[in-house]
Amino acid sequence: MDNFIIRGGRPLSGQTTISGSKNAALPILFATLLTREKSEVRNVPELMDIKSTFELLNYLGKNCFYGYGSFVAEEHGSLKHHAPYDLVRKMRASVLAAGPLLARFRKTRFSMPGGCSIGMRPIDIHLEGFKKLGAQVTYEKGDVILTAKRLRAGRVKFRFPSVGATENLMMCAALIEGTTVLENCAREPEIEDLAAALNKMGARVEGAGKTAIKVTGVTRLKGLKHAVMPDRIETGTFMLLCAAAGGRVRLLNTAPKTLTVVINAMRKAGARVNCYKDSLEVISPAGRPKPVSVATKPHPGFPTDLQAPWMVFMSRANGTSEVHEHIFENRFMHAPELVRMGADITVHGQKAVVKGVPQLLGAPVMCSDIRAGAAMVVAAAAAKGKSVIRRVYHIDRGYERLVQKLKDLGVDASRVKV
Ligand code: UD1
Questions:
Q1: Which of 227, 257, 275 is the last residue of a domain?
Q2: Has residue 85 got a pLDDT over 90?
Q3: Nearest CA to ligand 1 atom 36
Q4: Strands 62-67 and 70-75, sheet pairing
Q5: What is the pLDDT of residues 282-333, one digit of tens each?
Q6: What mean pLDDT comes out for the span 380-401?
Q7: What are the pLDDT digits (tens) for 14-61?
Q8: CATH code where residue 352 lies
Q9: Does the pLDDT value for residue 158 go beyond 90?
Q10: Would the pLDDT of 195 be above 90?
Q11: In this structure, are 380 and 394 located in the same domain?
């Protein structure tokens, strides 16, 4: 197991390039299951969740090649339609194989993903959607089995705008004859990227990015060539890193328009953010930031995946702010670690009260999940002195070449084997 060692407390400067979006790449890679033809996806980040997807697609019978930002999936023989526990437990997004496999083979069996540290994370919204399209759902030995003699297009209204369920149902409906209307959909930019990719395969998806999505099914989809959108969560993490640690940095190959709500909140707190077509520049507040409260919400609201780094930024504010978490029930596990670094944070259910302190101090800390892990890095860069960050395998799931990128921005960071 590796640790990160960060000596923080000095202002940042420099520039780095943002990777392709993990959360957009995952569904797009699973969409390659919808066709036998060769697909090539570019701007795919090299990280653990993509490796897990590579393993699962290969297990299912795809021939995949992956490297230098490019992911190629071909199909020579027949596919399996069973995703086993050992592959699914590594990554909840494996459930995204279900929609394409059900659409193509009228049956699929996959291990029920368990809860995780940030909450229960059930998949009932996905399953309700598949049922509406004609699938039967049964359970056996911890697996979910979906079968359908015939899938039929229809209307699916999600009880909550789940990102994964919206993606799964879009992919499934793309191969079902007739018009399916999905309502109360998630509107995250990654859903628009998936729709663009599906449409390049010959699907007819309209309205992605809005609450209602219309999918007109086709009988066959073709191979895909697509470059994944930039990672808005990685971008936001580096923006908050600069805002919290101080300094001025430039982030290249990104999409500022996907981060409007975060940029507005940062400006309110006193940071300057200059947006260009595909890059942005962040200049930290002069002195301590102003306290700004945020509440996480589905897009276009404040993203839950940036809640933890935002809390780090606010932990140095000149006053008290609140952070409300409305998406996941247990997503404040970074708070006690930040307290160990000198932050003054109290958690009351889904609300954290953050009283700003003048300075965080380096300490040994631990990552509890992917985004909490990123917050530890932000805190360590902002804190005076040395921090040792443990359990960085959580961070490896979602941040490509992180230590190198931190160095690009002037952070004294290294990765050590223990
Ligand atoms: C995706 C993102 C993740 C992000 C999250 C919310 C990927 C690979 N992951 O996760 O980084 O934090 O969106 O923006 O894109 N829920 C149910 N039943 C369901 C599905 C979800 O109750 O069937 C609940 C979840 O437990 C959670 C909330 O809905 O509390 C949001 O989940 P969802 O939008 O589905 O997130 P994911 O797609 O898992």
A1: 227
A2: no
A3: 163
A4: antiparallel
A5: 999 999 999 999 999 999 999 999 999 999 999 999 999 999 999 998 899 9
A6: 96
A7: 999 999 999 999 999 999 999 999 999 999 999 999 999 999 999 999
A8: 3.65.10.10
A9: yes
A10: yes
A11: yes
Number of domains in the chain: 2
Strand pairing report for 143-147 and 62-67: unpaired
Ligand 1 atom showing the smallest separation from residue 161 Cα? 34
Do residues 248 and 348 both lie within one domain?
Answer: yes
Please list, in sequence order, all residues whose beta carbon lies within 8 angstroms of the beta carbon of residue 293, skipping any fewer than 6 positions away: 321, 322, 323, 324
**Angle 305-417-21 (CA atoms, 0-180°, nearest 5)?**
25
Which ligand 1 atom is the nearest neighbour of the CA of 167? Answer: 38
Nearest Cα neighbor of 229 from 37, 32, 45, 35 is 45
Judged against a pLDDT cut of 80, whether residue 116 lies above it is answered with: no
Give the dihedral of Cα atoms 155, 157, 163, 167; nearest 10 deg: -10
Same domain, 196 and 242: no
pLDDT value of position 113 = 79
Token representation of residue 276: 């260009």
Distance 358 CA to ligand 1 centre (A): 35
For residue 55, give the nearest of 43, 63, 44, 46 by alpha carbon. Answer: 63
Q: Which domain holds residue 344?
A: 2-19+230-417
Q: What's the rounded Cα separation, in Å, for the pair 346 and 260?
A: 28
Enumerate residues lining ligand 1, CB below 6 A.
23, 26, 92-93, 119-126, 160, 162-165, 186, 190, 304-305, 327-328
